[in-house]
Amino acid sequence: MPRIAHALAALAVLLIAAPPARAQQPPRPENPRDVFLAGWSEVGDKLVKMAEEFPENKFDYKPAEGVRTFGDVLRHVAFWNQWVAKTARGEKPDGKPNELPKAEFGTKAKLIAALKSSIAEGAAELKKQGPTPGARETGLWSSFITHSSEHYGQLVVYYRLNGLVPPASRGTN
């Protein structure tokens, strides 16, 4: 009996002294480029998840005249993501027509593929940057992370108006 008591006491000490188990956390960004990359990826992932889960028959939904449809917003974001990547490469992209053409990206599958590709293209260009981007690059990335975030908020409203809970809001109050 004393052996069991000693073993239990030793186990209790180990459990008390052991650091608490924590959920696996992503590494914290260590420099400005990594902060931008984390922001770019986070909002991009949210937009992709929304696009994947929003019903395809609602991609032409718009809450009022004079605003973009759900699909148009995604084509717009994907267009500007591509523009950012080209600009980061030093190319002179054309800012027209302001969104990917619906004739070419009219299905949910094609639009999601284009959105994913545009996010990956931007992330790849951002990864090529030095750890401390210059003023021009800082302005570029911060502006377009904000741009995508604004459209994410817009699509949250589209979700809610259709009686849907956006993926990032599930399980929260």
SSE diagram, text form:
Blueprint: H1 2-17, H2 32-53, H3 70-88, H4 108-128, H5 135-161
Helix pairs in contact: 2-4, 2-5, 3-4, 3-5
- Can you give the helix content as a percent range? 55-70%
What is the name of the CATH topology? Four Helix Bundle (Hemerythrin (Met), subunit A)
Number of helices: 5
CATH architecture: Up-down Bundle
Give the full name of the CATH homologous superfamily. Answer: dinb family like domain
Instruction: Outline the low-pLDDT stretches.
Output: 4-19
What shape does the CA trace take? globular
Pairing-aware structural class of the strands and helices? mainly alpha
Sheet with the most strands?
A: none
Total strands: the figure is 0
**Helix and strand run:** HHHHH
Rg over C-alpha atoms, rounded to the nearest angstrom = 22 Å
Q: What is the CATH C-level name?
A: Mainly Alpha
Distance between the termini: 51 Å
Strand content: under 5%
**Number of structural units classed as domains:** 1
Average of pLDDT: 87
